[in-house]
Write a structure and sequence with these properties.
Length: about 450
Amino acid sequence: MKPTPVHICSKCDAQFIKWSGRCESCGAWGSISKEPTLIGSSADQAKEQITTAPANIRSFSDLNNKPSAATIPTGFQALDEILGGGLTPGSVTLIAGEPGMGKSTLLSQVALAAGQNGKTIIYVAGEESPAQINLRLKRLSKNITANLKYIDATDVNAIATTLEKNHPAFAIIDSVQSISTEQASGETGSISQVKASAAILTQIAKKTDVPIILVGQVTKEGDMAGPRALEHLVDTVLSLEGDRLHRYRLLRAIKHRFGSTDEAALMDMTENGLQIVQDPSAALITERPLKAPGSAIGCVLEGRRPLLVELQALVTPAGYSTPTRRATSLDSTRLNMLLAVLTRHAGIAVYDKDVYANAAGGLGVRDPAADLALAAAVSSAVKKQPLDSKTAYFGEIGLTGELRPVALPELRLKELARMGFTTVVCPKLKKLPVIKNLTIQMCENIGQALL
């Protein structure tokens, strides 16, 4: 079949018949180039003779006689807990996050902990030079064992051959955007190179039972040639989130083929690396103002871990005809919806006000149970009246103003009681738990909740 030229975007891998200066799929400029690619109909492909030898068919019962491989503990508590004990042999784990979140710092600590436990680790230095990585290792620990080794090759085939020959306990690739292969087109870091390189590494991991950890960079918009395209290729996807200007980082599992995604860990970025926060709720609300309008405490879930967060709102007269709405660490679309519901169903007019909302601590809040706490903060800011410092809120708000139930309310109530709160405003519960020194006010709609 004669090769037919096709135009491919190096950023998102979209294909076009004609060249254009801007990709219609991802919006990138100057990323489309012409490459010879075989394009044919399914009928033409069916006419081609299949010459590949058939694969061997085996029974799953044969695998039952083989002992299952145990997980490999890394020695870093937060990572081992999220992974259910450690890395699974032959697995590929992707750690994604924005630049500056501390991904390299986290994996340096993981490598140091594993090396001190006698495990051999190979660190692939792609983005940084070995000297730069060594400086970070020295900052994090005075004891760098000989078990921690590195290679500075960026050819994925060379990396795969090295892993197959040396068979380390696990390998760290920092980062997946810095490696490439001649078997794929595009520049280093393009989606075609990233997917091809990840496929080769996944193949060698399954063949040798060597766990591989990939580092992937993500922009604030979530657009990049890397982690978003690799989620279906890898076994586990971990996300390191937070604000680079704040101290706290949240490590959570988005996908995990070998266990649940219910675990999350809050860590504090210090001079000595990432330190696990043993009491996340206390750390997040310890510096909250007690008698300030526009501040409310909510309880959100990260996996099965309840976290108390302070939601803040500032409401001022609009300086222009179109009011300003700004949300930090919150969904701005959700904020606009709540403001409309407050105006329509709670009699709190904010249509001519500038509204600024923030989740203190820099952690992104996604749980819809934060709706009621955010609405309470806005109501407090409008009325200029502080809320009771011992009252907390959780519940999802619908467009008709009703309060909708949320997941695991009893866990949230127990966490609030543990932190010393005496009153909780929430939606109606199917079964009212009896919790000492805690008054539960169940409401049907937002009007009742904000009285």
